[in-house]
Amino acid sequence: MVALRKRTRALKPQMAIDNSGSESGNDGVCCEECGSGHSPAELLLCDGCDKGYHLFCLRPILVNVPKGSWFGPCCSKQKKPKSFPLIQTKIVDFFRIQRNAEVSEKMNQDNRKRRKRASGLVMSKKRRRMLPFSPSEDPAVRLKQMASLATALTATGTEFSNKLIYRPGMAPREANCPDYEHGGMQVLSKEDFETLTLCKSMMERGECPPLMVVFDPQEGFTVEADKLIKDWTIITEYTGDVDYLKNRENDDGDSIMTLLSAADPSKSLVICPDKYGNIARYINGINNHTPEGRKKQNLKCVRFDVNGESRVLLIANRDIPKGERLYYDYNAYENEYPTEHFV
Question: Which of 65, 87, 97, 264 is the most exposed, fewest CB within 10 Å of its CB?
Fold first, then answer.
């Protein structure tokens, strides 16, 4: 089986296989896009016509060989994802936004005061504090932002969740113990925890991060800043099902994120946002094999001990102007995630 390649840490790819799961040399098959038969380990055969396509020549690029049947551009009718209805009641229900307007308005006033105080935070002598995201002020703009995320989630068959989920048959909550982390894990400070809690509460009231999810023919779903985002702002938390890495060794998901890299490999955990997730799964990675690719990085992925539970945050590592796409490095120390073909 093909080895799992997950974000921030990945296993090295094994033997070439075709999409049915059997070993294949793809003799005599050339890629319909580039005309070459090189890199047979990454040459995928269409189940409709047996034509070949390199994973990295497809648009959007495929990182892994998909499970089950796969149909290439020759046999599939790729369509632009259907936009989610721009209707407030549907969006409120989709994201399970709090409906109590009176409570929401009071909390909005409190949070505006807190954001004013937070916005004045600067580099201190000891450490730098995280900033909460600043939602767009226009409610109509926020509806468009949430509708763009709902479009992506619907198209990928993902249910929205802004938290880690522990389901029967996967890793239990008690397995997510930061003490297992190899080399230790940094602890989120009280101030930064309050900032993270503020971000979560804003989302619950429909005050989302100023982000738009767009569909790009080359990159697939990707995320853009919809207003200026300041350096050191919390963008989002990476969410989804929590499972043991050993259970996902042969998973074909390309959005799996390291949650706990334990000294004992059997205790290592990953986040799997295939059934549940949020906007984090649509933020793309840089090509960290080129200087140009590395320059695109404007987020960093950091794991923290948050009240005795490992959590993954995506944080701005510089000011991000409106319209710029968000990128972070899918690799940590190993540089094993296959990013050499990323645009």
Answer: 264
DSSP code string of 235-253 = EEE--EEEEEGGGGTT---
- Helix crossing, 190-204 with 101-119: angle to 10°? 140
Query: For the chain, which ranges sit under pLDDT 50?
Result: 1-5, 10-26, 101-104, 115-125
Residue 140 is classified by DSSP as H
In the chain, where does DSSP find H-type helix? 88-94, 101-119, 139-155, 190-204, 291-295
User: For residues 188-212, b (16+ Cβ closer than 10 Å) or e, as one string?
Assistant: beeebbbbbebbeebbebbbbbbbb
User: What Å distances lie between residue 300 and 73, 198, 199, 245, CA to CA?
Assistant: 34, 20, 17, 22
* Token pair for 113: 């005061």
| Tokens, residue 25 | 């040399």
Q: Pull the structure tokens for residue 224.
A: 């853009």
Radius of gyration of the chain (CA): 21
Instruction: Tell me the whole-structure pTM to 2 decimals.
Output: 0.80
CA distance 77 to 298: 34
What DSSP element (H or E) covers 259? strand 257-260
Residue 61 CA to residue 235 CA, distance in Å, equals 25
Of 40, 61, 1, the C-alpha closest to 337 is 61
